[in-house]
Amino acid sequence: MDIIFYITAFVTLVSTLMVITRHNPVHALLYLVISLLSLSVIFFLLGAPFAAMLEIIIYAGAIMVLFIFVIMLLNLGKETAIQEKEWLKPKVWIGPTILSAILFAELFYLISSPSATYLVQQTVDAKTVAISLFRPYLIGVELAAMLLMAGVVGAAHIGQHKKTTLHRFLKEEEVL
Amino acid sequence: MEMILLLAALLFVMGIAGVIIRKNIIFMLLSIEVMLNASGLAFVAAGSHWGQPDGQVMFVFILAMAAAEVSVGLALILQIYHQHKSLDIDNLKEMKG
Q1: Interval A121-143: pLDDT, tens
Q2: What values do phi and psi take at B24, rounded to 5?
Q3: Contact by Cβ (8 Å): A93, B21
Q4: Could you give the domains of chain B?
Q5: What ipTM does this complex have?
Q6: Is B6 within 8 Å of chain A by CB?
Q7: What residues of A are in contact with residue B44 (Cβ under 8 Å)?
C-alpha cells in the first residue's frame, strides 16, 4: 500500500508542477485533470471512497468543463503562449525557488522529526458521511446551498454583456 | 500520515507559486483550484486518520465553495476579456489595487 501511495504522490506532484509551468492553457487543464485523478486515488487509499468519487465527478467532470468552455470562448492561442514564455525566464524565479526550498526543508524537518505512527486504514463509507452531513452538519448544507445560489446569480449578473452607456445628459448632448 | 500532510503542503505551495508567478488570470484560477485540492486532501487525511466522517464532510463543503468560486471567477474573466481584450493582470491598472 505504501509503494502505491508514493507512486501516486509522485504523479500528483509532477502533474501539478506541469500545471503551473505550461504555456498553453489547454495543456495545463489536461495536467490538472491528471492531478485530480491521482488525488482521488490517494483518497481511495485513505479509505474515503465517497470523497474520491466526488473528486472525479465534480472536479474533473464539472469544474474542468467550465474551464474548457471559457478557454474555448476566449480562443486563447499562440500569442498568449509566447507572452507567458517570455515572462517565465529561469533567472527570474531561481532566487525565490532557493528561498522556498530552504523553507520547505525546514517544514520537512518539523513534520518528520516527531515519531508519529502511520495512519490506520479504516474505511469511512458514503453512508457514514451522509448521516454526518445531514444530522450535525445540516446547517452547513443549507449554507452551502445558499452559497451556490449566490454563485449562480452572481455569475449570471457579472457575465452578461452590457454596453458602456454614457450618462443621460451626455447622451442628450451627443444627440443634439 | 506525515507523508500525506507533506504532499498536501507541497501541493499548496505549488498553488501559491502558480498564483504568484503567472500573469494570466486563467492560470491563477487554476492554481487556486490546486490550493483548494491541497486543503481538501489535508481534511480527508485527517478525517481518515481519526476514522471520523467529518473530514469528508469538510471536503464536500470545499467542493461546493470551489464550484461557486469558479463560476463567479470565470464570469469575471469573460467580462475582463470583453473590456480589455487581454487576460494579463498588468493591464488592470485602473483598479488601483
Answers
A1: 577 888 988 999 999 999 999 99
A2: -95, 135
A3: yes
A4: 2-86 (1.10.287.3510)
A5: 0.90
A6: yes
A7: 43, 46, 48, 51
